[in-house]
Amino acid sequence: MQMILDGLREALRLLVTLDPEVVRIVVLSLKVSGTATLVALLIGLSGGVALAFLRFPGRDIVVAAVNTGMGIPPVVVGLFVSILLWRNGPLGMLELLYTPTAMIVAQVVIATPIVMGISLAALQALPEKLRWQAVGLGASRLQTIWILVREARLPLLAAVMAGFGGVISEIGASIMVGGNIKGYTRVLTTATVMETSRGNFEIAIGLGILLLLLTFAVNATLTKIQQRKRPR
Question: Which end of the chain has fewer CB atoms within 10 angstroms, the N or the C?
Answer without folding.
Answer: C
